[in-house]
Amino acid sequence: MSVGLNLLSRASAQRPVQMVIPACCGIVTAGSYPFSAYGAPVVASTFASAAAVATGLAQIATINGDNTRVIAWAGDGGTYDIGMATLSAAAERNEDILYICYDNEIYGNTGGQRSSATPVGATTTTTPLGKDIEKKDILGIMAAHRVPYCATISLAHPEDAHRKLQQALDARGFRFLHILAPCPTGWKSEPAEGIELVWLAICSGLFPVYEVYDGYRYTINVEPELSRPALEEYFSLQGRFRKNTVDLDRVQKMVARNWKQLRARAEEES
């Protein structure tokens, strides 16, 4: 999360921004009123209302005629699950907000429960034997709203990440960015291996790096190897995956299926 915030800070330099952060790890580090560790005004919202609060701020910015960019910064719990209603509503109305989900695939701020972002095979406090359901395709859901721009961001590809952040900040209408954000506590991994885990997730095909314009124009930004060794190493570096909870053959088939669909969508508009 902190690396993602650092990239956002660089991309938004010299721009007036306001942030809305629901209940998540991100709001803890902002500090207490009237100060903000993020160098920008921050509104702490309830778990479910980040997109709604951001909508209100964006509407006021429009009324005032200024160029303030309103950013909702939320975890997967407040995006995939509890905040989905207001997120979908804001996207359907094409509100002028940038919504960024830093996805650590767990309810990390409330004890480590599973979310619908938790991948198959991962053990959590509520899935001690490993989750048996595949992760929700959040970018596919947002693209189905036909919003102007949505994309995945790789922390292991800073140039591509910077371009996407700047593009999303410059654009108008609803924009959605999805960041895979390793959580050492929840993933039971070494903090120094966070970027390596992102890299392995990309090389193995688990985390596609792509962008979608207007809900139908797909562009793949990083072509993965779909490497089985990368997949095995990705799981081995995290204590949340155990040998008896992860079916590598099932995961590899899932990855191949997802990439077949993604490439077909990208080729339709090439």
Q: Class, according to the CATH hierarchy?
A: Alpha Beta
The stretches of 5 or more residues where confidence is low (pLDDT under 50) are: none
Write down the CATH topology. Answer: Rossmann fold
Query: What spatial form do the alpha-carbon principal axes imply?
Result: globular
The side-by-side strand order for the widest beta sheet comes to 2-1-3-4-6-5-7-8
- Just name the CATH architecture: 3-Layer(aba) Sandwich
SS-based class: alpha/beta
Radius of gyration from CA coordinates? 18 Å
CATH superfamily: Thiamin diphosphate (ThDP)-binding fold, Pyr/PP domains
| Relative strand content | 15-25%
Number of strands: 8
Mean pLDDT across the residues is: 95
H/E series, N to C?
A: HEHEHEHHEHEHEHHEEHH
Helix content: 25-40%
Major β-sheet profile: 8 strands, mixed
Q: Helical element count?
A: 11
C-alpha termini separation: 33 Å
Q: Count the domains.
A: 1
Short description:
It contains eleven helices and eight strands.
